[in-house]
Amino acid sequence: MTDYDVLRVFCGPNGGYGNELGVVRDGSVMPERSDRQELAAKLGFSETVFVDDPERGLIDIYTPTLRLPFAGHPCVGTAWLLDVPELVTPAGVVGTRLDGEFTWIEARAEWAPPRTLRQYATAAEVDALDVPPPGEWIYAWAWADESAGRVRARAFPGRDDGIDEDEATGAAALLLTDRLGRALNITQGQGSQILTAPQPHGWVEVGGRVYLER
């Protein structure tokens, strides 16, 4: 088995929750895309990252069933792990910074895969949702405290690949921030925390806590 690290990204204030991420630090051991896709499916994380150049921050991202040009929690986790000023993805160059307990990335909404952002009237309605049938990638959200920018959210990828609900989703948080045009403090899944802030010229920062699980 290829060596890989497991991180939890977008952890809650107490260090719990977060979305697991697999990172193969030496992508040269598995250069073929088909082999990478096979490993990502075998590991079963919502995303697995292959690092092709750790000094430049060149990375390659896979779900269990497909390759992604950009994804939020893989970029935040890999930025923390490599501690580099930027990551190079097929979508574009992602700025990164570490600020205390939070790791931040800066990206553009158009890099994120399409998502259905579905607003509900209350956080309780979001909490009560059942997993919808496969077919549509749904980000269900509601204001927990609109004046404070606090959001309750859950994410349903709908890919029928074993990931029925995504515990923490940076790309969807980026899209929601871009749509609303304001900084957000998102509680997603069982207790993950995602912070966001719109930046000039169409950029959005997304940040969270990262822990090395194994």
Would you list the SSEs in sequence order as H and E? EEHEEEHEEEEHEEHEEE
Number of helices: 4
Radius of gyration (Å): 16 Å
Count the E strands: 14
Mean pLDDT value: 95
* Helicity level: 10-25%
Nutshell version of this structure?
This protein is an alpha+beta fold.
Report on the structure:
It is a single chain. The protein is of the alpha+beta class. The protein has helices at residues 33-43, 72-82, 123-127, 170-180, and strands spanning 5-11, 19-24, 48-53, 58-62, 67-68, 86-88, 93-99, 102-108, 116-119, 138-145, 150-156, 184-188, 192-198, 203-212. Strands 1, 2, 3, 4, 5, 6, 7, 8, 9, 10, 11, 12, 13 and 14 form a 14-stranded mixed sheet that branches.
What is the topological layout?
Layout: E1 5-11, E2 19-24, H1 33-43, E3 48-53, E4 58-62, E5 67-68, H2 72-82, E6 86-88, E7 93-99, E8 102-108, E9 116-119, H3 123-127, E10 138-145, E11 150-156, H4 170-180, E12 184-188, E13 192-198, E14 203-212
List keywords for this structure.
214 residues; alpha+beta; 14-stranded mixed β-sheet; 4 helices; 14 strands; globular
